[in-house]
Amino acid sequence: xxxxxxxxxxxxxxxxxxxxxxxxxxxxxxxxxxxxxxxxxxxxxxxxxxxxxxxxxxxxxxxxxxxxxxxxxxxxxxxxxxxxxxxxxxxxxxxxxxxxxxxxxxxxxxxxxxxxxxxxxxxxxxxxxxxxxxxxxxxxxxxxxxxxxxxxxxxxxxxxxxxxxxxxxxxxxxxxxxxxxxxxxxxxxxxxxxxxxxxxxxxxxxxxxxxxxxxxxxxxxxxxxxxxxxxxxxxxxxxxxxxxxxxxxxxxxxxxxxxxxxxxxxxxxxxxxxxxxxxxxxxxxxxxxxxxxxxxxxxxxxxxxxxxxxxxxxxxxxxxxxxxxxxxxxxxxxxxxxxxxxxxxxxxxxxxxxxxxxxxxxxxxxxxxxxxxxxxxxxxxxxxxxxxxxxxxxxxxxxxxxxxxxxxxxxxxxxxxxxxx
Length: 421
Known about the structure:
Elements: H1 21-24, E1 26-29, H2 37-46, E2 50-53, H3 59-68, H4 75-89, E3 98-103, H5 114-125, E4 131-134, H6 149-172, H7 181-199, H8 205-217, E5 227-233, H9 235-239, H10 247-253, E6 256-259, H11 263-281, H12 285-312, H13 321-329, H14 343-353, E7 358-364, H15 368-373, H16 378-384, E8 389-395, H17 401-419
Parallel strand pairs: 1-2, 1-3, 3-4, 5-6, 5-7, 7-8
């Protein structure tokens, strides 16, 4: 049967990524984590996968998503699907030798349904492109990456190092004396960690953390009073330049210091929620023991990075996750875990307690859990922290960048007034 005569049953016989495709197919990844993908993709390539991160954006990407996704679906799904289809139509990739990859948290939000949404969208024009799932919750068994312990450890350490590079860059870039020095420091750190990943020395946490801290500390800076702005919200729009209209770049242009919480906090949030499920609801008690071990392992590494950062003395350390949990308890129960759930108010509280009173709460269209746990917690947070200056910003296909930036500028005007600037 010829290729164009074949039919695909998308209930069960959807196109699958087979082990043989590892050598022949290019895997497309949406541009979700600009600070971490340099390292994460490097790890995947070491495992033999051919991976490309998509950087296509603009109105044509959003419109492509709108053509293939119901307009009541959440904005991140629309962006991701738009990037895939726009890239496949660009002529750069052979659809017969291309696959797409998406992460799934396995929670109750719509992100857990991204795979069938993507398959349905691809079916219209590229029905033979398989969809891979990267998840740790048992979703899409037999149609994901081949994960082994070494692979997982490299991914985990890459997230730790990516978080630290992101934090140091954002604490250096607004104050650098010479334009571009912070960017050079970032490249230098990424290349050093790649060498460690290749040489099997990535676990030498003290050595690499100190290297990152000292590399950025060597950048000539002039410290002066600036508005610090935290970025919280749904995981995609918190990090993705396409999803948040290049929010970090905008804040830098406004002479602010962006403060972006660690990606590892979201990983720990997902892990501890499985432990909480057993404690609160009596669910999956056996698997909760495994998650508890994973949590203590990852949290132990996080504490070591925080201790090294404090000892170095130049940079504000990333949040301690146990402190985040205590912050959450002041506002909302840890049983509220749909989407980013209790993590959003926890991050807003922790930011306020570490001197970042001004916060952009990024909310994508269609993400009801985040509107409830994020926007819905603002009144309580302002009662707890009198100087907290929070602006919820909606990101959706109809929202203009100008309106989004104007809302943030109003928040910044209040912030500068509070600082006496």
